[in-house]
Amino acid sequence: MIAELGLRWILTLLFAAAGSFCLYRCARRPGFSGRAADALHAAMCVGMVTMAWPATMTFARMPQVVLFAAAAGWFAVTTALGFGHGRLPGAHHALMMAGMAWMAFVMPSAMAGMTRSATAMGGEHAGMDMGDAGMTMTGHAPAHVVVVAAVLAVVFLAAGIAWLARAIDHSRTVARPGRREIGLATEGVMSLGMAVMAVAMI
């Protein structure tokens, strides 16, 4: 999905770090609800990494759709019942999981309107297996995919900035940032990563 190799690696490292933190926090949480939330966020990070790489972006596509749709329902229900960290964070978590399910579901149609072209240092070499090196994506996704992706990109961008702002504000009030501040920053990074992935579908 991500044509630029450098951006793929940046997203991979960011989501790997976010997923590792979610697993660490999951192991230290006392309650089931919090642990389930962290486990689902870690699974989301794994899914985002697979979507960033052309070789694995359709890996276990339908199981991902089912998993993240169920996760969206979980966050929606727990938020409505008053669990979690509040209605806005809970709604954001539900939307991120729903966004993951949607991305996995529409991936074939999103890629159907795009074609690959491979370029090498000395020019174009038709008929050669170049792997992911020099690969670019051309064309456009269907209109309905573009509209939804654009809306998700704007929402996740705004949410990511808000999460990072909260992390900075909290860090200013403590002598040493802890799990709470890192958790807020992780939420921001994941939301911004979702925004980048949504833009990549346009």
Automatic annotation (TrEMBL):
<dbReference type="InterPro" id="IPR033458">
    <property type="entry name" value="DUF5134"/>
</dbReference>
<keyword id="KW-0472">Membrane</keyword>
<feature type="transmembrane region" description="Helical">
    <location>
        <begin position="39"/>
        <end position="59"/>
    </location>
</feature>
<feature type="transmembrane region" description="Helical">
    <location>
        <begin position="184"/>
        <end position="201"/>
    </location>
</feature>
<keyword id="KW-1133">Transmembrane helix</keyword>
<dbReference type="Pfam" id="PF17197">
    <property type="entry name" value="DUF5134"/>
</dbReference>
<protein>
    <submittedName>
        <fullName>DUF5134 domain-containing protein</fullName>
    </submittedName>
</protein>
<feature type="transmembrane region" description="Helical">
    <location>
        <begin position="143"/>
        <end position="164"/>
    </location>
</feature>
<feature type="transmembrane region" description="Helical">
    <location>
        <begin position="6"/>
        <end position="27"/>
    </location>
</feature>
<feature type="transmembrane region" description="Helical">
    <location>
        <begin position="65"/>
        <end position="83"/>
    </location>
</feature>
<keyword id="KW-0812">Transmembrane</keyword>
<feature type="transmembrane region" description="Helical">
    <location>
        <begin position="95"/>
        <end position="114"/>
    </location>
</feature>
